[in-house]
Specification:
about 120 residues, about 35% helix, elongated, alpha+beta
Length: about 120
Amino acid sequence: MVESMSKENLGTVEISPNVIEVIATIAVSEVKGVTLLQKNKSLDKLGVKNARGVNVEIKEDDIYIDAYCTFEYGTKISATAKQVQQNIKHALENMTALNPKQVNVHIINIKFKDN
């Protein structure tokens, strides 16, 4: 759990890693040409434990996020991956006031348009 304590000593606020995963998932869905991988055998091999394609790890109060994505064919990979990172970072900062230490984007597949 990620905890933060208010200066007014009202108690603690705990944000579950599941909440961080949901926020990151929504942030990725807002980037054009990108979808998160769904639960499948390849995600199991990569160590992703949930069905959203986002893995959140908390070590010593630092947040590490891994997003496993499929990009559409023709998408500029470097610019789009950077946009995914920025969307996740900004969403977490705006909604939770948490700042992730790392946001890693793993491009696992390219999706071709069906004719």
